Amino acid sequence: MKKRVSNIIKEVQIPMKSVSQRLNNQGYTLIEALLSFTVFCMISLCIPLIMKGFSTIKQDMVPPHYYEWNLFNESLRNELWKGESVVITHDKISFLVSGESISYEKYNHSIRRRVNNQGHEVVLQSVDSFSFASINQGVHMDLEFVGGEEVEGEFFYFSTEQGEGMPEQ
């Protein structure tokens, strides 16, 4: 029994001996404190830079109004060029392209495109107000974005009823 207890004590003492070799009696030194404080300060100074980076990325993901306006302007211009039977009201334009009815109308703070009165394709966002007006073989559009920026555009189409040929650009 004594041998068995001494074997157990030896087994217990071995890990204790290796742990005691790792420990020293010098304590927590000033150099360790300065090193820890330096690492803490470096991490603390990086947090605002990281937050600013996220903010910049978020702002860059939202395109400026003129990018969206140019894309909308070009797509409506191309569709109207192919369109027939154009119907213009104050807040909506609709026409036929290849037998399908296409309409552009306001929906909340955006302009949406619908085909055959179905679907919901947002083509322009952050729109405060807009209006369509009929001009000779075309449409004039006044638009104001939510921030107060105002733009206007003219879209021409070929009307077979008037038979005057190509529209002016």
Q: Roughly what is the average pLDDT, rounded to an integer?
A: 79
Q: Give the overall shape.
A: elongated
Taking the alpha carbons of the first and last residues, their distance comes to 108 Å
For the largest beta-sheet, the strand count, sense and barrel status come to: 5 strands, antiparallel
Q: How big is the Rg?
A: 36 Å
Structural class: alpha+beta
Helical proportion, percent range: 40-55%
Helical element count? Answer: 3
What fraction of residues sit in β-strands?
25-35%
Number of distinct beta strands: 8
Strand order of the largest sheet: 1-2-3-4-5
- Uncertain residue ranges: 161-169
Order of helices and strands: HHHEEEEEEEE
Please specify the SSE layout and strand pairing.
Layout: H1 2-22, H2 30-61, H3 65-82, E1 84-88, E2 92-97, E3 100-107, E4 110-115, E5 118-125, E6 127-135, E7 138-145, E8 150-156
Antiparallel strand pairs: 1-2, 2-3, 3-4, 4-5, 6-7, 7-8
Walk me through the structure.
The protein has 169 residues and is of the alpha+beta class. It has three helices and eight strands. It has helices spanning 2-22, 30-61, 65-82, and strands at residues 84-88, 92-97, 100-107, 110-115, 118-125, 127-135, 138-145, 150-156. The strands form two sheets. The protein has a five-stranded antiparallel β-sheet with strand order 1-2-3-4-5, covered by helices on one side. The protein has a three-stranded antiparallel β-sheet with strand order 6-7-8, with helices on one face. A hairpin with a 4-residue loop joins strand 7 and strand 8. The longest helix has 32 residues, at 30-61. It is elongated and about 110 Å long. The termini are far apart. Mean pLDDT is 79; it is low at 161-169.
